[in-house]
Amino acid sequence: MIKAFKDPFGGIKGDQTFKSSSPFKIDKEQALKDIQNSIAKWKGKDKKKSSFFSKILKIKDLQNDSKASHWEYSDTNRQLINIHLFWSGRKIKTLYEVPKKKVLKTLNKIKIFYKNISGIRPDISNQLILDCYNQTAKNYNLPKKKISFKDQIEVKSFDPFEGLEGKTKKILNNDLFKDKKIALKEINLSIKIFNENFSKKKIDQNLRRKPKNFSQNFKTSPDHFEVYLYWGGILIREIKRVSQNKTKDALFSLKEFIENFDTQNPNLKDPLIKKMYLASKEKYRPKNKKQKLLSINEGGMSYWSYKQHKWIMGKFDAKNNKFIPPKKNL
Question: Which residues pair with 229 in a beta bridge?
């Protein structure tokens, strides 16, 4: 009789649900589990409890709510919800104060978003997928990927939050924010002009206002265009000889690129973002004739804050006829 050997692990087996050892694929599988858990918690939050246990179970529900990775209450009345796109242990994007009736639909859209991500060749032309990929890379000390300008402006990207009512996080008004606001106004105008005057191959030589983000290659033909990214008053990047059909896509994608520009935490390792950043810095550099308001490099006391991304300047107190220097290290 053959003696059975004792299992040193007590019969415990490894989890076979993970189909790959690739970090990105593992994060995708975990994201699908987490979103399913968040959906289940949302569906179960309004189940009626017996009156005898209602108070105890309500406390338990509040504790369980905090464990949902993709949503949380944003107000004490529990009528508005913050919804997160959660990946690799981090909130990639958040929409704030979403009405309760929209939550389940949005959670299911996030689930679809996760399912459609390729674990082998993720589409990093989609900014959200790129952010997810780079979060995985950060956690596993892998090289991060960058999106090229060409890819960014020619691809329409799926956003699970698109068309959803909610609020974005309060943004501090810095010099980057000012230029982003201007750039969005210009791209919206450019899209409007293009749709009204060129979408049907119509040429209008008497436009009241010239678009900032595109121009015709040839005055007598609306078939080819040049597309421009302007920021801080200067041309940052351009593409030439773009077909009429692709120009429309390029303009919409350029709008998305500008909308995704993070004015609070810009990625200065990206050469394109850095060029835009420096354009804003130079544009708003103090040029006041009063010596003390000039930048430190010009003999004044103003300095650029890499924390707030704006120029920090002092001011003159006319009443007391004195100069109040700027606070340091802001």
Answer: 237
Looking at residue 295, what DSSP letter applies? Answer: B
Three-state SS at 23: helix
**Are the beta carbons of 220 and 231 closer than 8 angstroms?**
no
Residues 6+ apart with CB under 8 A from 4: none
Contact 125, 157 (CB under 8 A): yes
Tokens (6 digits) for 328: 């340091």
Please provide residue 287's backbone torsions phi and psi, each rounded to the nearest 5 degrees.
Answer: -125, 20
Helices (H), 171-308: 175-197, 244-259, 271-283
- Beta-carbon contacts of residue 241 (< 8 Å; ≥ 6 apart): 217, 224, 226
DSSP-assigned letter for residue 302: B
Q: Tell which residue, 209, 198, 186, 190, has the closest CA to residue 244.
A: 198
Q: What distance in Å separates the CA atoms of residue 253 and residue 243, rounded to the nearest whole number?
A: 15
Residue 289 class from Cβ within 10 Å (0-12 exposed, 13-18 middle, 19+ buried)?
Answer: exposed
- Nearest to residue 115, comparing CAs of 39, 184, 187? 39
- End-to-end, the C-alpha distance of the chain in Å comes to 79
**Contact partners, residue 256, CB within 8 Å, separation at least 6:** 127, 157
CB 89 within 8 A of CB 69: no
Whole-number CA gyration radius for the chain: 26
Range in 42-56, 73-87, 295-309 with the lowest mean pLDDT: 42-56
Q: Map out the domains of the chain as residue ranges.
A: 23-154, 175-279, 285-324
How much is the pTM? 0.50
Residue 301 · residue 292 · CB < 8 Å: yes
Residue percentage of the chain with pLDDT more than 90: 33
Nearest to 241 by CA among 264, 260, 216: 216
- ∠ CA 253-259-260, nearest 5°, is 90
pLDDT digits (tens, 9 = 90+) for 265-308: 888 888 999 999 999 999 999 987 777 888 888 888 899 998 88
